[in-house]
Design brief:
Elements: E1 3-5, E2 11-12, H1 18-25, E3 33-36, E4 42-53, E5 59-68, H2 70-92, E6 98-101, E7 106-110, H3 112-117, H4 128-131, H5 140-150, E8 154-163, E9 172-180
Antiparallel strand pairs: 1-2, 1-3, 3-4, 4-5, 6-7, 8-9
Length: 187
């Protein structure tokens, strides 16, 4: 009496269910499905059907273990919504914002205001030192490394940096207020 759906919401016929495939074909498919109980409640499930075979190799039945992952799916959706909201805030903020990933400081998010500092230079997806080679010897990479290693923020006001404001231009003296903040993953 349960209805079964794939994760996109398309109803699966009973012969397309992982248990039916295990019984009819003797093969195991572990895929997330959504079940709808007779009362209309839907749950995200990962089934683990295990065909039982006789001594001649014929499927005689199956044991099915179901793991309910509904809460994890909801938590993942909520985290994705929060991440999208933060990205939207960063991209529309009237401030220079760039997020860097890993110990090589790869530009992962560059908002329009930050990009304006550097004209048409390609920043996204590049290491900071490759995208902005004029930073070499100005102590910036060292400060980024310190924040990355310690997690302690670095905040500075009126710092003189020599920046090239577009591709092929000479670095110019530029005074900036900025901060570096560590970002953390789940671990």
């Amino acid at each position: 009496s349960w209805k079964i759906y794939n994760t996109e919401g398309t109803e699966l016929s009973l012969d397309q269910s992982p248990m039916a495939i295990a019984l009819n074909e003797g093969r195991v498919i572990n895929m997330e499905i959504v079940i709808e109980k007779p009362n209309g409640v839907k749950r995200n499930i990962i089934p683990f059907p295990q065909p039982m075979v006789d001594s001649e190799g014929n499927v005689t039945g199956s044991i099915n273990t179901l793991i309910d992952i509904t809460e994890q799916v909801l938590a993942r959706k909520q985290m994705q919504q929060v991440a999208e909201m933060i990205e939207k805030l960063f991209m529309n903020a009237p401030a220079f914002i760039c997020t860097l990933k890993g110990p090589e400081f790869i530009c992962e998010l560059v908002n329009p205001e930050y990009q304006k500092l550097y004209g048409k230079r390609k920043l996204l997806g590049r290491k900071v030192i490759e995208a902005l080679p004029e930073l070499e010897g100005q102590g910036i990479i060292e400060k980024l490394t310190q924040v990355y290693n310690t997690g302690e923020p670095y905040v500075v006001t009126e710092r003189l940096l020599y920046l090239a404001h577009d591709e092929g231009k000479e670095p110019e003296p530029t005074y900036l207020n900025f901060s570096y903040q560590a970002m953390y993953d789940a671990h």
